[in-house]
Amino acid sequence: MASHSAAPHASPSAPPWIFMVLIVPFGLVGGFLGVALAYELKQAGISAAAIAGLIALSYVPNTWKFLWAPLVDLSWTRRHWYLASTLVTGLGMVSMAWFSRDALHWGALTVVMLITNVTSTVSGMAVDSLMAHSTADEEKGRAAGWFQAGNLGGGALGGGLALWLVQDWQVSVLASGWVMAALCVLSCVPLLFLPEPAKTPHESRAAHASVLARFKGVLWGLWGDLWSVIASRSGLLALIVCFLPIGSGAVSNLWSVMAGDWHASANTVALVNGGLGGLASAAGCLLGGWVCDRLERKTAYCLFGLLQVVLAVVMALAPKSETSFIVLASAYNVAVGMAYAGFSALVLEVIGRGAAATKYNIMASLSNVPIGYVTWIDGQAYDRWGMATMLNVEAGIGVLGLLVFAGALLVVRSRSHAKALGATAA
Fold first, then answer.
1. Which pLDDT belongs to residue 10?
2. Domain tally for the chain?
3. Domain residues for 34?
4. What is the pTM of this model?
């Protein structure tokens, strides 16, 4: 009986690579701003602190995106939300390029950047939901790996390709923005092969209710689902991890700013942030996922954060040459990919089922807090003390985050142990 009733609502399993393509626009925005526009703004005389502040501000929508996440579930379809938000994101990058031409449009650039990042979060939410509903259980690990590879690869593509076009092909920044918009359009093509997931019985019943009733139902269901996560030891630790600067990869947001310290050309910056950077990050995603299947996931995530600390110190001490920049920046990009895969694996482990897409977005929102504030701190440190000190500050912040998490882990485990002893004694 159960099998028969569930069959009409089952969605066909989608090939995992589709989610790599669909998530590309989400990554393009960050890469375009953090690499191509950052490089052009630096050449125009904008300070590193101002550029880092703009990049840090771009993480604000990603920090608060859980507030508008229910819209994707309450109205329209996931495919329609993806199509509309992705097209607006593409036009947003064109507008960002237009307003980045000189410092006089800094205010307009900031506003357009925030709007574009908001629309890109909606695009990402639609992909999260499509992936959760259109992937077979036995393929969800592979889908998550492709998903993160597309996210980081999209960032590398948005930065490296745009900068390469501007520097080598001598096209305008505005023209590079139109190329980014074209990539957003191409990313919509997989929707032709991905039908809208079938409605569950609960969704079918809710479709006949008022919008207010559906909204209340989503909120109450979400609160119960979230509380079940927070009340668990693993869920509480995952929330703590989200706020801590472990594996933030903030240095990778400033490759363009520090390129001159390494005597690196624009082509080298494009290489590190583009094709080579994308391959390194994607390899890190796959490697990190492999490690997470063989180690306790919180331990694996902390190891990935420690690897970033070590690489930051090595970069501070290494000879400042273009070759060193390519090798060490690529190694750091691998570590960033590993940390992203580790975070996804950790979150997927603790959120379980239920409102999985919304819970994932809440965790992802929180995880953007340390990326934003560490990027801002790095920019301030670079302007005041130079690149070497900035890298050491980054490493110190990472060590502090690991120590805080170790302390939280000891406290949570000791309380759980004491509670278990009390229950045994009773």
1. 44
2. 1
3. 13-194+210-419
4. 0.72
